[in-house]
Amino acid sequence: MSASMQGKIVLITGATSGIGLAMARELAARGAHVTLVGRNAAKLATVAEQIRTQTDNQHIETILADLSTHAGVQLTAHEFKRRHTRLDVLINNAGAIYMSRQISADGLEMTFALNHLNYFHLTNLLLETLKSSAPARIINVSSDAHRGHVIEFDNLQGEKSYSGWTAYGRSKLMNLLFTYELARRLEGKGVTVNALHPGFVATGFGKNNGALMRLAMRLISPIARSAEEGAATGIYLACSLEVEGVSGKYFVDKQAVPSDPASYDQQTAQRLWETSLELIA
Ligand SMILES: NC(=O)c1ccc[n+]([C@@H]2O[C@H](COP(=O)([O-])OP(=O)(O)OC[C@H]3O[C@@H](n4cnc5c(N)ncnc54)[C@H](OP(=O)(O)O)[C@@H]3O)[C@@H](O)[C@H]2O)c1
Fold first, then answer.
1. How many angstroms from the chain centroid is the CA of residue 241?
2. Top mutation candidate among 79, 119, 203 for ligand 1, by most atoms within 8 Å of CB
3. Residue 3 maps to a domain
4. Does residue 4 fall inside a structural domain?
């Protein structure tokens, strides 16, 4: 059973491609007022117009921002709050893998900056709006790639050693540590926060890493899910009455499942929270 999404206010990041685009389109089809965040102006405008046409929903807005930077995250929150006084569903989805170590405009390692700090920062900037819109939902797109990783606080920016897959897996573990810590902090506030793994999905993922990686992604794409299939759990978390009031869980294929034991370490979660706060101060 799904709640009506008619007129619900939704903000979704990474909405110009893959899973984010499929979630945005479906939520728009269900009548939500959707704000798409993207970093490419032309792509953002095209996608917004496609969604309006395909869903016959004119309530599709855009915010142009690079979410790997503090300024981009601040701009997104500021612009959203300028236009809206409520937010029913926030979907943190923008993410990427960087096979070679890259540095953001703020001097942070890119995987950490985009996949973790952006979720943390944007959510915190929108938290009062979410609370005053209760019941509201936060959905963090994580990945099963979080399994088997640990957070190295003395190598948080990959400054001592770097591997793209490890940095990615750790960032997705951070999504879970953040989700569970936020759920504890939001208890009784009417705002739920859950994380999800979308499955292995054929998207633009990985294609920012050169021709070899693009070829590898193309070769394995026949065994991957479609973006629409990958979007199903996110849609479920945004709309289903079954998850009303459910918070601090990890979902795969619409089922709450245990995540890696490392993701439940409260000390690590608190330390990551404090460290992240310092980095956005
Ligand atoms: N695909 C999978 O198998 C899989 C599995 C598990 C988890 N995930 C997770 O699913 C989420 C969505 O990924 P996807 O597979 O749909 O990949 P995708 O097709 O590459 O989509 C990623 C989205 O993030 C946006 N983005 C990237 N860097 C950005 C930046 N600096 N600022 C703002 N937006 C930025 C991209 O914008 P552009 O359109 O401009 O590139 C795009 O809209 C990610 O969090 C990923 O970790 C994916």
1. 21
2. 203
3. no
4. no
